[in-house]
Design goal:
The chain has about 500 residues and is of the alpha/beta class. Helices cover about 40% and strands about 20% of the residues.
Length: about 500
């Protein structure tokens, strides 16, 4: 794919050729039973550019039935063969990365270079779990010479994956790849605003050799397609990424079938800068932590906690960098893209307007915007509120946009207390030259993952997930494979 030519063609025509428009069930495209369609939008222009299937319970039933029928053979497939399929999928994804990144940028709104990184990360996930597939091993138990005790490690069965709109491809890969490696079948429901790369991925996996029915995709709304999927009695596990209220509903639905659940929910993650840190490095880290994907990141560093001795110097550096951000359509490789949808843009604006009504004055930003080149799209200015009280909703509530709240700490202990001062506990970042202080804080901050001197450090090898209102369970790393396995113990008298 010639990306530059494709961008020119898209802006001229307003759409892309050969985009998927149906569900993917039992290895083939499947029109919706009810025949309904819905539109997907380009957030950078605020206009629809494609239509796709609006799924219902009948479509979910077809997909789960296909997954259930495929489970037995796939679960018995030799692990090395499952790994080989995932390896081929990774290679195909790398070969077709330009088109995947283009569609991901267009559907989600994120800058193209960020989408390119997401595609590379998704390919790496398939490579990683391809290598894990034949490392799933049981144990023997020392129950005496007259007995043989051992375990069989088995796939849990049909798994449901509810994919969010902020990282459609990479979130899908981090859940689906370990499920397939473990021998589970999958029914995926992508977000209604970003359905396309999940559909493309399903077709790619089929070309890589995945048997029919092992991976199925049903598109549509959460109410019409997502809810019946997570409540289906043949679904034995649900992996969900999304909001706290929706996650609570998913857990309740799964509980009725005694199905296991992994929930990756919201965050209000702290990025702590101590007075001995490299302040320029820390300021760069702050920009990436909160303004990547326009702040639409569950693990975004949306709270900057800085020691008072360097508060002014750090904030000055961050403001300077914010003013250098370039807003615009993601396909133009800007540094601040749009918000994903008109309703979400309205929610972000409402939360910022409420903060201003309470008397908070943003240092920069604070208003909805449009693409300077086209005067279109769902944008919001990069925003900073300084020295915000711990009780203020800007500190306590997830805004999920390019909005940073600054909190001032008196010392390391106070910074730790502030870091733990919300209901969320997803990730945390620490910038300091003091090795001992960094690791004491890593010990004392309640979070599923802690970054030291580089926000978003790590990769697919490092387990990821939250505590408290940020959810439970872990994705990524070898820990993720265990979400999709069950242990059967066998004890036999042999003498």
């Amino acid at each position: 794919m010639n990306t530059d030519a494709a961008i020119r063609d898209y802006f001229a025509a307003g759409t892309l050729p050969a985009l998927p428009s149906d569900h993917f069930i039992a290895g083939r495209w499947a029109a919706p039973v009810a025949g309904a369609r819905m539109e997907t939008f380009d957030p950078g222009l605020g206009r629809a550019y494609h239509a796709f299937a609006a799924g219902t319970e009948e479509d979910v039933e077809r997909a789960v039935t296909a997954a259930h029928a495929a489970q037995g053979a796939w679960g018995r497939t030799k692990a090395s063969e499952r790994g080989a399929i995932l390896t081929r999928a990774a290679a195909l994804l790398r070969a077709e990365a330009a088109r995947f990144a283009f569609v991901e940028s267009l559907d989600s709104g994120k800058p193209l270079q960020e989408a390119e990184g997401d595609v590379g990360g998704a390919a790496r996930a398939f490579e990683y779990y391809a290598g894990a597939a034949d490392k799933i091993e049981g144990e023997t138990y020392p129950i005496g010479d007259a007995y043989l005790g051992y375990s069989r490690i088995e796939p849990v069965g049909v798994t449901a994956h509810i994919i969010p709109w902020n990282f459609p491809l990479s979130t899908a890969a981090r859940g689906i790849a370990p499920a397939l490696a473990a021998g589970c079948t999958v029914v995926a429901k992508p977000a209604e605003t970003t359905p396309l790369t999940m559909l493309m991925l399903a077709e790619l996996l089929t070309r890589a050799g995945l048997p029919d029915g092992v991976l199925n995709v049903v598109t549509g709304t959460g109410a019409e397609a997502g809810a019946p999927l997570v409540a289906h009695p043949r679904v034995r596990h649900v992996t969900f990424t999304g909001s706290v209220p929706t996650g609570q509903g998913v857990m309740q639905a799964a509980a009725r079938n005694v199905a296991s659940v992994v929930l990756e929910l919201g965050g209000k993650s702290p990025l702590v800068v101590l007075k001995d840190a490299d302040l320029d490095d820390a300021a760069d880290g702050v920009i990436g932590a909160i303004y990547e994907n326009a702040g639409q990141v569950c693990s975004a560093g949306s709270r900057l906690i800085v020691e008072r001795a360097v508060h002014g110097a750090v904030v000055e550096r961050v403001v300077e960098r914010v003013k250098a951000l370039r807003m615009g359509h993601g396909l133009r490789r800007t540094t601040l893209g749009p918000l994903n949808s008109a309703p979400h843009a309205a929610r972000v604006a409402a939360k910022v307007d409420a903060a201003k009504a309470r008397g908070l004055a943003p240092l920069v930003g604070g208003a909805a915007a449009t693409d300077p080149e086209t005067d279109a799209g769902w944008f919001f200015e990069a925003t900073i509120f300084d020295d915000v009280a711990e009780s203020d909703p800007v500190v306590q509530d997830e805004i999920f946009g390019p909005v940073l709240a600054v909190q001032v700490a008196e010392d390391v202990d106070h910074a730790t207390a502030l870091a733990n001062g919300t209901d969320y506990a997803l990730v945390a970042g620490i910038y300091t030259r003091d090795f001992a202080a960094a690791h004491r804080m890593a010990r004392d901050i309640d979070a599923g993952q802690v970054f030291i001197n580089e926000y978003f450090a790590g990769g697919i090898e490092v387990p990821f997930g939250g505590n408290r209102h940020s959810g439970f369970g872990r994705e990524k790393g070898l820990a993720a494979v265990h979400n999709y396995l069950r242990v059967k113990s066998v004890a036999a008298k042999i003498g």
